[in-house]
Amino acid sequence: MLRPFLRSSLGNATRFLGTEASAISEEDAGAPRNLKRIGRALETYLRHSRENASMMARERADFDLGKRHLANMMGIDPHTINQNDIDKAIEYLFPSSLFDKKARPVMRPPDEILPRFNRFTFDDEGRPSDSRFYTLRPKFYALLSEIGLKTYNVSRLHAEHVKLNRKDDVNDQTVSLTGTTWINEEKMKKKLGENITTEMYAHLFLAFDYLVSLPGSVVESEFISQFREPLTSATASRIFGPEIPKVEICSKTNRRTATASVRVKSTNATVTVSDAGTGQWDIDGLTMHNFRSLLAREVLLCPLIVANLIGQVDVKATTVGAGGATAVPRAVRHGTALGLAALFPDVEEKLRLAGLISWDPRDKERNKVNQPGARAKWIWKRR
Amino acid sequence: METLGIACRRLAFTTKASGRRISTQKALATRYDPRVFRDPIIKLDELNKKLAPEDEKNFLYIKAMESDDTPVFYRNEVVDKLVRVCMKDGGKETSRNNIFSALEIIKRRQYKLWREAPTEEEKAKIETNPFKVAEKGIKNCHPLMKLMPVTRGGTTYRVPFPIEEKEAEFRAMKMMRDICRGKAKHSKILHFGDYIANELLAAYNNEGQTIQAKQELHKQCEANRAYAHYRG
Amino acid sequence: MRRVFTSPAFPSHRSLFLSRQKATTSASNTLQQHQQSTSSIPAPSIHRDIKVPSISALEKASTQSTSLKPYVSEELQADDYFNLESLVNVKEMFDARLHLGHKIGTLNDNMKWALYGERLGICIFDLDVTKKFIVRALNFVAHVAARGGIILFVTTNRESMLNVEKTAKELGEYSHCRRWQEGTLTNSAQLVGATIRLPDTIIFLSTLTSLNEPHPAIIEAAKLTIPTVGVVDSNTDPAYLTYLIPANDDTPQSAEYLLRLFKEAITRGKAYRKKQQQLEF
Q1: Residue C232 is inside which H or E element, if any?
Q2: What's the pLDDT tens digit per position in B54-85?
Q3: Residue B188: inside a domain, yes or no?
Q4: Residue A338 belongs to a domain with what CATH number?
Q5: Do A47 and A111 have their domain in common?
Q6: What's the total number of domains in chain A?
Q7: Range of the domain at B88
Q8: How far is CA B190 from CA A261, B138, B175, in A?
Q9: Which residues are CB-neighbours of A354 under 8 A, at least 6 positions away?
Q10: Pick from B228, B230, B229, B219: nearest CA to B160
């Protein structure tokens, strides 16, 4: 076991000060005490490493077998079953009402779930393979040094450009960062393969921000983009709430319509917007005339004002669990906006920027124990 | 329902004593995660302009538009705010009716003045648009500083602090509202809207109780100028 | 300054994977078997004709270490085995600004021996003294490299940091130019997660941290009896360093010059080692 770690070439008789038995030791006096101890530690490490490898192999085999059983159970083709199918199947077979998604049962390849075993890379002389090994965070510091080097190169290049009076050169611009954001700490840890603290992460992005701010940094845009992710990944789609519905053609009247289901507080509304209309309103059988409040009328008309389509569409809405003075108009407004965006795609962006296509997430806050309401407290007495 | 973008996270656990779930979530100031939400554009002319390609609004969520931000032609920010400030128990309708009746009174009075003005010059000087009158009136009531209690060594001093425009506007409206509520309580003939109209018109001309109150405040601030070094 | 013997007769208990172990690979098994038949001790591959001191000789040596000179291997008998003195010359050192120290007011009393004098308030190093010490240090480093030792370059100078890392990588050696984690050497097992081979020598291109305190690695190395080479400036304390190089450590030009020298020394040591390894097979 020690063999790979012992140097073959400089083999020599080992003499140790203080060995009483004899200054001349035999071949098999054994490795000296220290070596033995270290050898044992190494042996342990090697044993753990091999055990881990065999364990992972077993787990992977188990997972593959389990996948096939699951496919059999659920009636899916075992050859084309993917992780999505597995997740759905597990959710069906083991329904859980635990709030924390991470606490629910999960079935994933063992590489994703089981803790990684730290394998060191040394050569047969025990020399680490990474030249920054003794910093204890070689990959992190390697990245930091790389940024430093690139910063130096970029500023040197820019100085050259200035000297040769080529300031308007394409290569002398600052890198464009629109639509992207720096990757977060978790992703950075995964990318580096090392555990970094928040402070180290902050240092890293201080360095990056400086590089990015330099004129001429566009030269290194490829390198920088490796650490940037699109903003849209934070928001899966640009619309918060129900998506824009599909346009259907009403068979009777041959008009284009779009139907959206929306919710505001406890009011659920289904709104149908029809093209080629005269500005008719039918909200649970009521017309605009029945909404006496100016505010309610403003709210209902809002999407048509923004899209400039007053009197050109008909709106029909039905509500369930109708709420207060503004709840129904707000719900119908949301539905109308979605319908308009479906029927007239060029006004979609305007409606979105006006905030009419977003779902309003504000709900009544729950009441808390020992309090009369959500926030109100009992009268406080000093004694 | 979608929980994307909502800033609060729920962590539920059961206690051993009872079987009930206790939420450990903190009450947050907003249901919109500030990292992924931006304010909507509520002015029609800005909406009609195309958005710059590198603007972050292209990639982020937009908050829902408020109920009283509909871009109608008679939209006035200051008057809307006054409506909200004078609102009681969420009764926006009542408040709006009061304020708009006040604006109507202002219009009538100003129109009368305008009609009775002798020359064209003087006619031009009279502002008949009640929204403009209200705006100007509130603006005249903006205090420049506020007094905050600061305790040093057992004694509580009232120290003058500078304030932002938004806060100054609110304080002006609040002063006016409190004055008018006080007056309306004791009167059986005139109502809140009438008093608001009087105050707004008076403030427009730099007169009236609200303006007086503002000047009092300024005098107090001036008097307590010595404590300004407690501001830190 | 004490000379540290790194001959196989005196293995250090902290460098555990090095040359002082018996050959047990299959490649040299046949050789071993042959040697076994002749003596009970396997003959060394590189260090032929090694004489092993008896217990009484060792006891005497505890007071008179020079008495063990005959037992020391032949390369270590020479002062400048790798002929590194030819690399160093005073004019080049002067051009690389090695002679510039800090202000007189910051002079450390223990560095007075290295100064030529003071000019315009700035301490000037005696480059002849520096040359002597450089050659000694270079030879030591070359011998370490010849025995496959791990060499760790340490610096806190931000300007020369990237250069040091680059040089260390080119040589196949190691560098640490960042914030020193306390216990990196003394507590390595816990910090890394397993026992690792520690550096056999540490070369400090600057001994002070950014807070003008002595670098923690100096003490750690001393605790583990790892010999150190240190470039000491006029304001630094030379304590606990094995091989000193009294010279300027702040300017990038001086760091560049010293790196070049170390690079050459290590390259020579490694070439020697490779030759020896080839001779065996």
Answers
A1: strand C228-232
A2: 788 888 899 999 999 999 999 999 999 999 99
A3: yes
A4: 3.30.230.10
A5: yes
A6: 3
A7: 77-231
A8: 48, 21, 19
A9: A306, B40, B41, B42, B47, B62, B65, B71
A10: B228
Q: C148 to chain A, minimum CA–CA distance in Å? A: 9
Per residue in A154-204, pLDDT (tens digit) is 999 999 888 888 767 777 777 777 778 899 898 899 889 889 999 999 999
Q: Both A140 and A120 in a single domain?
A: no
Specify whether the CB–CB gap between C184 and C191 falls below 8 A.
yes
**Which of B30, B61, B103 best tests the A interface by mutation, with the highest count of A CBs <10 A?**
B61
CB of B106 within 8 A of CB of B196? no
Q: What is the value of pTM for the model shown?
A: 0.64
Number of structural domains (chain B) is: 2
Assess: ipTM above 0.95: no
Inter-chain CB proximity B96 and A294 less than 8 Å: yes
Q: A298 and B27 in contact by Cβ < 8 A? A: no
Residue A360 lies in a domain: no
In this predicted structure, the answer to whether residue B168 has a pLDDT above a threshold of 60 is yes
Cβ–Cβ contact C119 with A under 8 A: no
Domain boundary among A180, A198, A233: A233
Check residue C117 and report its DSSP letter. E
Report yes or no on B6 lying in a domain: no
Partner-chain contact B54 A295, CB within 8 Å: no
**Same domain (yes/no): A125, A138:** no
Tens of pLDDT, residue by residue over B192-210, are 999 999 999 999 999 999 9
pLDDT at A273: 96
Tens-place pLDDT, residues A5-55:
433 333 333 333 333 333 333 333 343 444 555 566 667 777 888 888 999
- Return the DSSP state at B10: -
The domain boundary, picked from A111, A129, A147, lies at A129
Same domain, residue pair B104 and B203 = yes
Range of the domain at A216: 133-233
CATH code of the region C85-275: 3.40.50.10490
The Cα C37–Cα C49 span in angstroms is 16
> Mean of the pLDDT values across residues A75-95?
94
Pairing outcome for strands B155-162 and A180-182: unpaired
Amino acid identity at C180 = W
Domain boundaries, chain C: 1-77, 85-275
Q: Are A261 and A270 contacting, i.e. CB atoms less than 8 angstroms apart?
A: yes
Provide φ and ψ at A32, rounded to 5°.
-60, 165
